[in-house]
Amino acid sequence: MIEVQDLRKTYGQGAEAFEALRGVSFRVEDGEFVAVMGPSGCGKSTLLAILGLLDHSSAGSYRLKGREVSGLDDTERTLFRRETIGFVFQSFNLLPRMTSLENVALPMTYANVHRRERRQRAAELLTKVGLGDKLKRTPLELSGGQRQRVSVARSLVNRPALMLADEPTGNLDSKTSLEILDLLGQLHAEGMTILLVTHDSRVAARAQRVLHFSDGLLVKEEAPS
Ligand SMILES: Nc1ncnc2c1ncn2[C@@H]1O[C@H](COP(=O)(O)OP(=O)(O)O)[C@@H](O)[C@H]1O
Ligand SMILES: [Mg+2]
């Protein structure tokens, strides 16, 4: 699914330049559940933005589903991202004035899906994540865990092969975190490839493999017992 070779990312230029990724190489196989761990500032979000085709690397190779990404133009990247990747963020990123149904249906608008099918598919996905009775609620009328379920449902609308999650339980209490981790575990069991960023070793323990980052480098790889 993912193959990166000597990936580098430099922010800024000249005396201001800062190398957030300093030559990182790893693979993620189809269907794997991998966690990326490391302290704040070690480059986790930078890595995820590059893997998610939201930002460009400065050097190195990135192959996603066998396709070299570095040479793609912005339009190609956007299309490839939309059909391949689902994102879940720590801060949910839901639109506050929209209902759960509308929030989940929104990404399909860009994909030219008919309104009736959008609403039907959004309702199905919300039911799948356990919110079949909350279709008309707005984010303010939902708990943190329910909001994150909405954002997980939204990440699935274009049937992605890869889910990228940046601290998905970072804003949740420990009981709610477990529910979201169970939901990700269920998606993984159904075949989803997941790459999850966390600084919490209990969260990382859910993954099949943990990549430890420090100062922009991959320093250790382990399979939790
Ligand atoms: N847009 C940016 N411009 C300059 N420096 C940045 C930018 N984004 C991140 N950085 C720096 O790159 C390093 C890695 O950041 P980040 O990837 O967000 O780390 P993490 O997610 O592991 O906390 C940090 O030192 C951060 O300050
Ligand atoms: Mg981060």
Task: Describe what you observe in this structure.
It is a single chain. The protein is 34% helix and 28% strand. The chain is α/β, with parallel strands linked by helices and 225 residues long. The protein has a domain at 2-94 and 160-222: 3-Layer(aba) Sandwich (Rossmann fold). The strands form two sheets. The protein has a six-stranded mixed beta sheet with strand order 6-7-8-3-9-10. Strands 2-1-4-5 form a four-stranded antiparallel beta sheet, with helices on one face. The structure holds adenosine-5'-diphosphate (ADP) and magnesium ion. Adenosine-5'-diphosphate is lined by residues 11-12, 18, 20, 38, 40-46.
Physical arrangement of strands within the biggest beta sheet: 6-7-8-3-9-10
Shape: globular
In CATH, the architecture of the domain at 2-94 and 160-222 is: 3-Layer(aba) Sandwich
Question: Could you give the count of β-strands?
Answer: 10
CATH superfamily of the domain at 2-94 and 160-222: P-loop containing nucleotide triphosphate hydrolases
Q: What's the helix-strand series?
A: EEEHEEHEHHHEHEHEE
Low-confidence stretches: none
Bound molecules: adenosine-5'-diphosphate, magnesium ion
**Rg for CA atoms:** 18 Å
Biggest sheet record: 6 strands, mixed
From the helix content, strand content and strand pairing, which structural class follows?
alpha/beta
